[in-house]
Amino acid sequence: MEEVSEETAINGEGPKISEEEMKEFMKKLEKIEEEDFLVIAGSVAKNMKDNIYEEICENVKKKKVKIIVDATGKFLTNVLKYKPFLIKPNKEELEEIFQDKINSNEEIIMYAKKLQEMGAENVLISMDQDGAILISKDKKVAYSKAPRGKLINSVGAGDSMVAGFLAGYLTYDDYEKAFKMGIAAGSASAFSENLATKEEILYQLSKI
Questions:
Q1: C-alpha to C-alpha distances, 134 to 24, 67, 92, 96, 123, nearest whole angstrom
Q2: Which CATH architecture has domain 20-205?
Q3: Which residues lie below 8 Å from residue 58, measured CB to CB, with a gap of 6+?
Q4: N or C: the chain end with fewer CB closer than 10 Å?
Q5: Which pairing describes strands 37-41 and 132-135: parallel, antiparallel, or unpaired?
Q6: Rg of the chain over all Cα atoms, to the nearest angstrom
Q7: What positions carry a catalytic annotation?
Q8: What is the pLDDT of residue 64?
Q9: Mean pLDDT of 59-79
Q10: What integer is the mean pLDDT of 53-80?
């Protein structure tokens, strides 16, 4: 992935979520069936409780739902007790969680394994142009560089990586193939002004 000289992100404040809307949302979670996948990602509205991610996990844990979490700080670490199927911190978020400067892939792997010890089944670490590392449930470590390309817009690349990993896993039931699909999807979105198309993702996958 080629660097751009400058990238500007403009983030607006999200809407307030009412108590009635949260009750309606929780009611919809009751429709989730056993072995479904639930992705919890992003920031939390200012008026919502800090433990909302935990409440969501608590509501679905009896159904053995496979939970994927892409969040930062305590929103991530507080749900590890629910043994999420996949978490996707980046290098900077790892440093924040463990209050340490990370200088090598070996250190990334060490801290990712600590997150596994804390409950996560699979840990996917995104490292921007340096690629990604996966420590899978079967304790195998996979590393891949990102495909070469011009970075146009990094917004949504991390979400695309999660979506790609999940699509790859559902298609192949294989961690390594899911890992490559995740990198391809994340890279394809970063190389596009919009979220990547299927054709763009498959093209990047052919380069990994």
A1: 36, 17, 16, 19, 6
A2: 3-Layer(aba) Sandwich (3.40)
A3: 82
A4: C
A5: unpaired
A6: 17
A7: 159
A8: 87
A9: 92
A10: 93
